[in-house]
Design a protein that fits this description.
The complex is a heterodimer. Chain A is an alpha+beta fold. Chain A is 29% helix and 27% strand. An 8-stranded mixed β-barrel of chain A has the order 2-4-3-11-12-10-7-14. In chain A, strands 5-6 form a two-stranded antiparallel ribbon. Chain A has a two-stranded antiparallel sheet with strand order 9-13. In chain A, a hairpin with a 4-residue loop joins strand 1 and strand 2. The N and C termini of chain A lie far apart (85 Å). By secondary structure, chain B is mainly alpha-helical. Helix content of chain B is 79%, strand content 0%. Chain B starts with a helix and ends with a helix. The chains are: A alpha+beta, B mainly alpha.
Chain lengths: 241, 391
């Protein structure tokens, strides 16, 4: 019994020491990882790739003040209605948009800021100033954003209004809502919504909040213009001053 | 060889029939804009195919003839014709015939990255006539074949067991459908599993906190979920409850939800029976439990609950296939899990970092193991005494 007790005491001491060493190693390896990540980030910053692709889905051209975003066509919403124009595939509503994006929407938000865009709600900003109220309807504020689309063999840059269909026939006017905090918390994946939206980075200021939900308008991609499901395309964003 | 072809024909007939049913439901649901913005109805096809496979399994291996819908000419004809009519009518009237059917099937089969819509359309053009031909062929074969009603497998189960088995499948299929189709729920569940797997108590506390007034309900549901299906560490939930609701509130919540989970596992085991429980907890674990139960009798559950290294869920499932009564199981579980629940909740409220908590858990486990060593001879003599009395 005495021998067993001494073995156990030794075991407890050994286990305690192991835990302390492991926790020490854990924090050291965390530090190492953080340092390595910072180094990698620095390297990535130094090497700027201007070609937009699936692996490099957002490119900021500060000189020409444009943001280029890689996306692919989602065939379903060429024939079914949706309220999402472009969503990040890994977001909660990644499959519900006409176009699929491949970068986190927060990066898109940062990219628009980099080309001088002013959002309705900045990071940590006041959400009560996000909308303009007209006849009890809420319309998104923020800088107007011009959106054009092109793809291989498209032959030209299409305006967003040429490739999307609004059942009411009105023109889509995107505004830079921002919504960094909401997007960070909810990660719906929304880049471009077809009606004013408290979560999308940009949304259509022509229609107030709840237009699609209320059945007042329907939106879908234009199957006569947009290429087939899965085709890669590039969206170009610039701020209208 | 004939039997193999016949079995294969039956399998394809069952899968194709359920594929059509799921397909028609998905197409109808997609017509609702409200639902389509919140739920990927395409996964109805996935779950429907699984249902076809499940019923085929019951028919083939348990002789559940009544569940083989594809063997009934009237039912098969009605379901096939109405499903195809819905698919064709909706897609033609909406002008989506070339896109929507192939999109739905491609997504339901998780082939989005590998198959184009054009290729999928060609596959469907082949699959539909072949599937229909096999269904008709199977029905004609069945018509000419007399099947003896044997009193085996499914027919030997009581009504209670049949209902339980189907209900359990229904619950699993429902949760699978919700998990696959609802992005927010999938994301939330993945997050919680990640916190539990990495034993990130503070992260899990914040996660629960994000549900506001529903945080206690979510905590309880996750505790029950992990008891039944997922082999995840429940102590992280208990710690987080202590951290979020205070040690008394946390302990009450953890204790009651763990009890609910244990009771559910106990009854599930009773419904499913020993062969299925053996598949869930492994034969080795169940044999170990049998020996443990034989040794300590009624006290086995209580002792097992006191030792933290013994799986809580395994004990609940295994107890369900022994002769222990519900109330014996209930009291033994309730009292046995009380010390650890109180201790973890108290530590959860007072400790601040994951490492500290892991350290405490480790220490408690060692302390209990030492206690076990000290009490072992007494417990053994108690067990022997019992065996002596029995003998």
């Amino acid at each position: 019994m005495k021998r067993k007790s001494s073995v156990f005491i030794k075991f407890v001491i050994l286990a305690t020491l192991t835990m302390l060493v492991l926790s020490g190693c854990g924090s050291k390896s965390n530090n190492d990882t953080t340092a390595k990540a910072a180094k990698d980030e620095k390297k990535a910053d130094q090497k700027v790739d201007n070609t937009v692709s699936k692996d490099n889905p957002i490119v900021v051209d500060k000189e020409n003040k444009v943001v280029k975003v890689y996306a692919t066509v989602n065939g379903k919403y060429l024939v079914s209605p949706t309220r999402h124009g472009l969503n990040w595939v890994e977001g909660k509503y990644g499959d519900q948009a006409v176009l699929k994006a491949y970068a986190n929407p927060l990066k898109f938000n940062e990219a628009l800021l980099e080309i001088g865009g002013v959002p309705a709600v900045e990071k940590g900003g006041d959400t009560s100033k996000e909308f303009e109220t007209k006849a009890n309807e809420k319309y998104i504020l923020g800088d107007e954003v011009k959106v054009t689309v092109s793809w291989e063999n498209a032959g030209k840059e299409y305006d967003i209004n040429d490739v999307m269909v609004d059942s009411t026939g009105q023109k889509i006017v995107y505004k830079f809502g921002g919504n960094y905090d909401t997007q960070e918390a909810k990660m719906t994946g929304c880049y471009m919504c077809f009606d004013s939206c408290p979560a999308g980075i940009t949304s259509n200021s022509t229609h107030p909040v709840g237009t699609f939900e209320g059945g007042h308008a329907e939106f879908h991609g234009n199957p006569d213009v947009l290429p087939a499901d899965g085709t890669p395309l590039v969206l170009t964003y610039s701020i209208v001053k | 060889m004939k039997n193999v072809i016949r079995a294969l024909g039956q399998l394809i007939a069952s899968l194709f029939l359920f594929f059509l049913i799921g397909f028609a439901i998905a197409i109808l649901l997609i017509q609702s804009n409200w639902l389509d913005m919140r739920f990927d109805s395409e996964y109805f096809v996935t779950v429907s195919l699984l249902t076809g496979a499940w019923l085929y399994f019951l028919r083939t291996f348990m002789n559940a003839k009544k569940l083989a819908l594809w063997e009934s000419a009237r039912t098969t004809a009605t379901l096939t014709i109405s499903s195809i009519a819905i698919i064709v009518y909706v897609t033609i009237s909406e002008g989506s015939l070339a896109i929507l059917p192939s999109y739905i099937v491609r997504k339901a089969l998780f082939l989005e990255e590998t198959v184009t819509l054009v290729d999928m359309n060609q596959i469907l053009l082949l699959v539909f006539p072949i599937g229909i031909a096999i269904i008709i062929g199977t029905l004609l074969k069945n018509k000419h074949q007399k099947v003896a009603t044997e009193n085996t497998g499914w027919n030997l189960l009581s009504r209670y067991q049949k209902f339980g088995t189907m209900f359990l499948y229904g619950v699993i299929a429902f949760f699978l459908l919700i998990y696959l189709g609802q992005g927010e729920i999938q994301d939330s569940l993945n997050q919680s599993i990640q916190y539990l797997k990495t034993a990130d108590v503070e992260g899990f506390r914040d996660y629960l906190h994000s549900f506001g007034s529903l945080s206690a309900v979510i905590s309880g549901l996750l505790m029950i979920f992990q008891s039944i299906i997922a082999p995840l560490p429940a102590f992280v939930i208990t710690f987080a409850n202590g951290l979020l609701f205070g040690w008394i509130g946390g302990a009450i919540l953890s204790w009651s939800s763990a009890m609910a989970g244990a009771v559910l596992c106990f009854y599930l085991a009773k419904i499913l029976g020993r062969p299925v429980v053996e598949k869930i907890v492994t034969k080795k674990a169940l044999t170990w439990w049998d020996q443990f139960f034989e040794k300590y009798g009624k006290h086995a559950v209580f002792i097992a609950r006191l030792v933290p290294v013994v799986s809580f869920d395994l004990v609940s499932y295994a107890a369900g296939v022994t002769s222990i009564s519900f109330w014996q199981f209930f009291w033994a579980t309730g009292l046995g899990q009380l010390p650890a629940t109180l201790l973890y909740s108290y530590l959860g409220q007072n400790a601040t970092s994951t490492v500290k908590i892991l350290f405490f858990v480790f220490t408690i486990m060692i302390a209990l193991a030492v206690l076990g060593m000290i009490l072992r001879p007494k417990l053994q003599s108690l067990g022997k005494g019992k065996q002596g009395v029995k003998g």
